[in-house]
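Supplementary Note 3. Input sequence used for the single-chain structure prediction.
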Amino acid sequence: MQIDYDFHEFARSGDWADPKANIEYACKLLADFRGIMIRCTSLRDAELIRAMLASYNCGPGNVLRTFGNGRDIDFYTAGRNYSADVLKRAEFFAANGWT
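The predicted structure, written as discrete structure tokens, is reproduced below.
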């Protein structure tokens, strides 16, 4: 999991090198971002997942800003396609036997 060095003390500590701690931290971030999106939007299902993933990449504030600007959820993400790309990769793994 890539944890942003500038925004998370975890990434600047030695814990980031521990795979279990790294995955647990990333999962906590995703859960926190999901909660923010549930509280601040009416998104559900696939769009909620996209917003959660985009928040992981560019922060929930930027994702929420996309709604005010009428932009795609991925507008502020790397390549402007982060959540869509993550979901496309997940589909590939699922289609190839990784569950």
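DSSP finds five helices and no strands in the chain. The helical segments are 9-12, 19-40, 45-58, 60-69, 82-95.
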